Amino acid sequence: MNLREIDRLVAEKVMGWEPVYDDGDLVSFVTEFGTLFFSDDDECEWSPTIDIADAWKVVEKLRESKKFTLHDVLDKNDNKVYYAQFHWIEMRYVEYVGAHANTAPLAICLAALKAVGFEVGHVEDIEGEGA
Fold first, then answer.
1. Cα dist. 130→61, 87, 122, 124 in Å?
2. Which terminus in the chain has less CB density within 10 A, N or C?
């Protein structure tokens, strides 16, 4: 799955925005602020997987019902990666979901999707490597 596909999933599944299609192609989302145009070619419009400002909007949306933490950690090869985690109380238990990625925005998006029950498989990240 590429970053734009993840952006789309985050907009719909996490942010709760209504997708608008034209001839089967996603062209925009209806948000609480109006219409957000969306195309595969223009990551400037909405791209929480690469833009920390957009990623932080995702965090703020989920912080309405969940706690959030972000850490820089080392992977098994001692490379610096980011770990984003959401947690909340479910009945009497604390539920945790988190995700690692090479960038903070991508880690946030992957953890946010897990928090709403959607797990992303293999991700082609910014460098084209799997996250």
1. 27, 25, 6, 5
2. N
State which residues of the chain have pLDDT below 70.
39-44, 125-131
Beta strand ranges found along the chain (DSSP E): 18-22, 25-31, 34-37, 67-74, 80-90, 93-101
pLDDT of residue 129: 45
Q: What was the pLDDT predicted at 25?
A: 81
Would you state the structure tokens that stand for residue 37, as one six-digit string?
């145009």
Written in H, E and C, the secondary structure of 54-67 is HHHHHHHHHCCCCE
CA distance 39 to 79: 33
**Identity at 31, one-letter amino acid code:** T
Q: pLDDT of 86-112, one tens digit each? A: 999 888 888 999 999 999 999 999 999
Domain spanning 3-115, CATH class: alpha beta
CA end-to-end span of the chain: 10
CA dihedral of 21, 18, 91, 111, whole degrees rounded to 10: 70
